[in-house]
Write a structure and sequence with these properties.
Blueprint lengths: L2 H18 L3 H17 L3 H18 L6 H13 L5 H17 L3 H19 L4 H16 L3 H10 L8 H25 L17
Length: 207
């Protein structure tokens, strides 16, 4: 794998964990760096993941509604390049639904979240945490729209399994990822740039 791709993923995951743990500004800075690293590596998947996370954390977590339109457009374009990835599309739909809720557009949010739930059930399965969370968000949105029967029906569909203490898991993962990021950066700094002599063809690297 190319170094920028590895760096982009490490930055994106670390940025998301920082935001989850309440360090929003630090998290957003890391997510911006992740998007730039992924874009420089022509890593469409990494760029889409980073932009989706930026949109969610800036607008939904940070309540920075003024950033919504610009981030939405950039994220939408990034996700369009990986439209074959149902998991990434589902994640983006969930984020769109959350943003629409923040903007008070509950009916639009409900339709987007319904699409997201359908994709997540297909990708992750009916007992998955992703599907359960989206059903909960959709049920809450329908309740806010006074569509109580639909909300109750969705609650009956939600998985009943326990998913553990996510906050503790995130703190542990943050330490691991920060260590990994330090190793990646150090190795990149130590690696000499390749030298090629003009006029000589490059030799294929043996695998």
């Amino acid at each position: 794998l190319a170094y920028p791709t590895i760096l982009a993923e490490a930055l994106q995951r670390t940025g998301q964990i920082e935001a989850d743990l309440g360090n929003l500004d630090a998290g957003l800075d890391l997510l911006h760096e992740a998007y730039r690293a992924a874009s420089s590596a022509h890593d469409d998947v990494g760029a889409a993941a980073a932009m989706r996370a930026l949109l969610y954390n800036s607008v939904v977590v940070g309540k920075r509604l003024a950033d919504a339109d610009l981030l939405w457009k950039v994220a939408d374009a990034a996700v369009a390049r990986v439209a074959h990835r149902d998991d990434l599309v589902a994640d983006f739909l969930v984020t769109q639904g959350a943003v629409l809720r923040e903007q008070g557009k509950l009916a639009e949010a409900a339709e987007v979240l319904r699409r997201a739930a359908g994709l997540q059930e297909k990708v992750h399965g009916p007992e998955s945490m992703e599907f359960a969370r989206t059903l909960a968000d959709l049920s809450m949105t329908l309740g806010d729209l006074s569509r109580t029967e639909e909300a109750h029906a969705l609650n009956e569909r939600r998985p009943r399994r326990e998913f553990g203490n996510e906050q503790v898991a995130r703190r542990r993962l943050r330490g691991i990822l920060r260590s990994l990021l330090g190793v990646v950066v150090q190795r990149a700094a130590e690696r000499p740039a390749p030298r090629f002599e003009p006029g000589r063809p490059r030799q294929a690297r043996r695998i």
